[in-house]
Amino acid sequence: MAKEKKRALGRGLSALLSEKNENVNSANDSGAEELVGNILEIAIENIVPNPNQPRTYFDETALNELAQSIKELGVIQPITVRKVGDKFELISGERRYRASQKAGLTHIPAFVRLADDRVMLEMALVENIQREDLDAIEIALTYQRLIDEINLTQEEMSKRVGKNRSTVTNYLRLLKLDPIVQTGIRDGMISMGHGRALISLENLDEQLSVYEKIVSKSLSVRQTEQLIKSLKNPTEKQSEEKVALPNDFKKTINEWTKKLDTKVEIKRNSKGKGKIILNFSSDADFQRIKDLIE
Fold this sequence. Notes:
Number of helices: 14
Oligomer: single chain
Strand order of the largest sheet: 1-5-3-4-2
Radius of gyration: 29 Å
């Protein structure tokens, strides 16, 4: 559906972890600046789970669904690892790591953390946010990293990056969208405004259904919002739809039109609720109709 995703994964593990800097384990080591803030393709066999991972249960059905999504779209949100010697220990993203194994991936995109690199990482992420070529999902992922890895609150982060807190919140909410929709935003198939409208649909199947209509029919953000409103309030939409008037209503319209010498309209929904509209051409005509009725 969405065009093939354009990945920007830096220069890759082989280039960044050359013989010159393969022993980089601390932010103070030479070559550390090349690792911090970059996305690397790391061999899954070189990644080890975090022994202190508090989460021990992973729903098998959800993992299989995520694995299928990864087969189709790849890993949209990179995992985060800590370099420990020649291995990489998981910091966050164990579901993505496990699902990638199920999907048969040999490598997975990852952010690499080093010992004592907090300040360096924060500087790299804040600088990254200022780039003009980032799409909305990339910005959202960077905000999320500042929260997860630097432990910034949304208020602190808004001050660091010079954005209103509401702006930061709106970006972060995009990460709740279905991966296919996120890919659509990254590829320019839909806008951030479309994404914000889709967030209100908690059912992912509905999200995807509306996403397909946005793309196929080139719906504007306003049209998307109206479509979603009709999906969430189907009875309201039905009550507003026009229905054929019974014969006695039509007869009344003809009689009143002749008697009042003006156009008479009756609108009625399927539940019997409606309104009568009497048209007038001027203040004097209004007074004439008023006198006839009284």
